[in-house]
Amino acid sequence: MSASLEVADVFRRHGDAYRRACDAHLGRVERRVMSAIELCRTAALGGHTEACADCGLVRCAYNSCRNRHCPKCQGQAREEWLAARQAELLPVPYFHVVFTLPAPVAEIAFQNKETVYAILFRAAAQTLRMIAADPKHLGAEIGLVAVLHTWGQNLHHHPHVHCVVPGGGPSLDGTRWVSCRPGFFLPVRVLSRVFRRLFLDELRAAFEAGHLGFFGDLAGLAEPAAFARCLRDLRRVEWVVYAKPPFGGPAQVLAYLGRYTHRVAISNARLISVTDQHVAFRWKDYRGGGKVKVMRLEPFEFIRRFLLHALPDGFHRIRHYGFLANGHRTAKLAFCRSLLDMPSPSGERVEDAALPPAPERCPCCGGVMIVLAILPRQEPVPRPVRDDTS
Hints:
- This protein has two domains: about 1-75 and about 300-305 and about 360-390, no CATH class; about 75-265 and about 310-355, no CATH class.
- The protein is built from eleven helices and 13 strands.
- Helix content is about 35%, strand content about 20%.
- Strand 9 and strand 10 (about 280-285) form a beta hairpin.
- It has helices at about 5-20, 30-40, 75-85, 105-110, 115-135, 190-210, 225-235, 250-260, 300-305, 330-340, 345-355; strands spanning about 45-50, 60, 95-100, 145-150, 155-165, 170, 175-180, 240-245, 270-275, 280-285, 290-295, 320, 370-375.
- The longest helix has 21 residues, at about 115-135.
- The chain has a five-stranded antiparallel sheet with strand order 8-3-5-4-12, with helices on both faces. Strands 2-1-13 form a three-stranded antiparallel sheet, with no helix packed on it.
């Protein structure tokens, strides 16, 4: 097993052949994801040469692709996002609630990513806020951070939303803070049924508005009668909503968010081997008791599964709702702190979050690396254009 294996190695070794074999089925987004990961931190993207001020080590440091699907480019984005969240945490329990789409809906979602993923976000957030506002359950306005994941451990398409929710909120009349019961947020069965109803109502509205497309095995759903039967069947099955125990405190909330918010379909650390015949990686079999196993896929199948999770351009996979919504988050959090008798975050902490990043350190002696010269990007080599006239 090599610790240096990367998803980029799979694309560099098999990407061109995959493009040729699947040319008619590859979209612009998927092609760009492949190219970005292949070129990430190579001379093609430019960079700089740097030297250690203490031991004299000289090395080239190449630029990152900054593509959100690249396993190597999420670290800095994650740290910046978490620094901004640090001052937003409240001294209350936080809960983790997961909303998952059934397999038949996941198939529709794959062919209509932007529309159906957006419905998933809205239905999950509306479900939590609606049930929390009900005086029979909590009777409060809540806030939440929702993160979309579209994969399972085996890289199959498995869309679900992870929600991190403070365990309470301002009362509906705004006079006090309402806390949830210790260790319990909202009833999962109620959440599941409301989520199912809200989601299917929105899915039907999208169909009636002509916002859904159906292809291949799903082409028959374009007929209104077939689509209505599909919705009827989906209303008869249980939808999975899972609520985990509360976090131990704000530090655990940040640690959790750091693991989930900027995750990609598979990390480089899970790769075991890449050959001409297969790509092997570790995966956790949750149905088998969480046992860690090894999966070997043909290279083309590995690439196909990885690209299942490419998101549409401009689609936000982290969203905020309730009193954490972007439009009024600062004012709402100040109000929440006042109800909790909690002091506002100190100016010193906010300033600390805005400090420039620490200088690069020498891997040999720990000295400061100094930039010597800028390396320009290389001109891309044009790929052959397919001739469709023959």
